[in-house]
Amino acid sequence: MRALFDRVWDEARKPADVDHTVAVSAPTDDERQILTLMCRVSKDEAGARTTGVSVRTYRRRIADLPAALGAGNRAQAALIARERGWI
């Protein structure tokens, strides 16, 4: 097990070295608002209230963002958006 870990560790790259080759266009105004709220509000309910949609709709919009940005989760999607200057 240790040998496997050592091999994987030696081949690992820093997050900055990962190639983000997913061709992504700039987000729409709605997507930009959702990305911004993801970073600013602590609860989905507050974000939904701010945008004037149901919590379910807000969560669905958030769920669509990581795939569109080539991210694995919300946090990574927010980081990618921030790196690209979208939020």
Automatic annotation (TrEMBL):
A GO MF label: DNA binding
GO biological process: regulation of DNA-templated transcription
Gene3D superfamilies given in the database record: Winged helix-like DNA-binding domain superfamily/Winged helix DNA-binding domain
SUPFAM superfamilies given in the database record: C-terminal effector domain of the bipartite response regulators
Superkingdom: Bacteria
Protein name: LuxR family transcriptional regulator
Organism: Streptomyces azureus
